[in-house]
Automatic annotation (TrEMBL):
PROSITE patterns: IG_LIKE (PS50835)
InterPro entries xref list: Ig-like_dom (IPR007110), Ig-like_dom_sf (IPR036179), Ig-like_fold (IPR013783), Ig_C1-set (IPR003597), Immune_Resp_Modulators (IPR050380)
Key words, A-Z: Disulfide bond, Immunoglobulin domain, Signal
Domain of life: Eukaryota
Gene3D superfamilies tied to this protein: Immunoglobulins (2.60.40.10)
Taxonomy of the source species: Eukaryota, Metazoa, Chordata, Craniata, Vertebrata
Xref: SMART domains: IGc1
Residue stretches of biased makeup (Polar residues): 114-123
Record-given protein name: Ig-like domain-containing protein
Amino acid sequence: MQEVFVPAVLGIVSLWCTFGSGTRLDVGSNSAPTLTVLPPSSEELSSTTTATLTCLANKGFPSDWTIRWKVDGTSQKQEASSRVLEKDGQYNWSSTLTLTGQEWNKAGGVTCEAQQNSQTPVTKTLRRADCSG
Ligand SMILES: *[C@@H]1O[C@H](CO)[C@@H](O)[C@H](O)[C@H]1NC(C)=O
């Protein structure tokens, strides 16, 4: 079995508040998407009472991964459905979670989780404390 180590690509919108490690893909079989959690923009936080987070899940296969959100370990009802894009046999998902500014302010960590069937999910956590500097 050939394994390829692919570095997480984080430069899509901003490097701010994103971090990650390499994701292992098994070529030609199921592969976990690479997750990136984008924090709410400072514009949104200063001009509205909401905080919208976006989770990008790139290059997964096949299409039956489910994207979910947790705030401090508690599952969230998804506010917006995930969009799925397919290209060259790989799938990208984009999911948004809308919190109130208050919920965001007291959140310690917001986690995006990608799960296939009932297998161990792949997760990425954005720590709000890392965003305040
Ligand atoms: C998925 O995301 C990657 C990285 O941003 C991009 O290169 C690729 O074209 C995207 N695929 C689709 C189907 O949008």
